[in-house]
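Work Package 3 (structural annotation) set out to generate three-dimensional models for the target panel prioritized at the project kickoff. During this period the team completed the workflow that converts sequence records into discrete structure tokens, so that structures can be stored uniformly alongside our sequence database. As a representative example, we reproduce one entry of 84 residues exactly as it appears in the project archive.
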Amino acid sequence: MYYYGTMGLFIMPWNESNLFAHITHIIITCNALWVLSLIFKKQNFEALGKALLCSIVVFVPLFALIQTYNQAHLEEFMQMLQNM
């Protein structure tokens, strides 16, 4: 949630065509902060450890796939970024 939600606020330009995306990124960031506050409030560090392990197992290969695809299709990716 942090990678796509919060980082999207800094990567995507702030203009009218990305307004809806930025609103959802702000909601995602608030959700991530809320979940972390609940975990630390209840001091359920076992749940935090399990969640971190699961997210690493799921999302590290996904991020690797995304980066590999973007490198293989760099021209298309750069055109898409320029059109934003």
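Residues 45-72 form the longest helix (28 residues).
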